[in-house]
Design a protein that fits this description.
single chain, mainly alpha, Transferase(Phosphotransferase), domain 1, two-stranded antiparallel sheet, 41% helix, Prot_kinase_dom, serine/threonine-protein kinase, transferase
Amino acid sequence: KTQQLSNDHVCYFLYQILRGLKYIHSANVLHRDLKPSNLLLNTTCDLKICDFGLARIADPDHDHTGFLTEYVATRWYRAPEIMLNSKGYTKSIDVWSVGCILAEMLGNRPLFPGKHYLDQLNHILGVLGSPSQEDLMCIINDKARGYIQSLPLKAKVPWKRMYPKADAKALDLLDKMLTFNPNKRINVEQALAHPYLEQYYDPGDEPVAEEPFTFEMELDDLPKERLK
């Protein structure tokens, strides 16, 4: 918190986060709790993603009603669709979290430090502006959609105003990751191929899982080496 990260550090850390997330998503798994405290760094700036306690197999049709009650971790990195829908969210929730982490690296403080559920949504809309009618349709829950529509219209705050010293390419990628509509949000492969990460991008050195996890694969039945 006391030291501002250089653009080189931000770029390298972001690349490693996305490289790790590409592997996780290739296994058909959502991490669901990406945040700075779940990223491990050593003295040579190697980064690892940790804490898979909330990770689940990706299933857009699954009802995640219990997700928020079990999600006792900080809400600051939650995608808006998690708070607005009980089901229908996808790997894009992790990309949103990475966007929040990128913003925090650029600004040295959390972007959306909501005190509670509604405050969190207000923080998000206060920066992104009010969603369009088209984007509102991605909210499955009628009550939640009605609440968003009842709020006063808000204009989008330009990222350059929030992070005047940030690299323009970093802000472009940030905008694509922090998109309200998950269907329009950039995915992890697209994020890795973004010009901001050009110096590190190497699809041949970005591992993917040998096979995706499925509901039939009970973790207790897998040999230790496979789990690793």
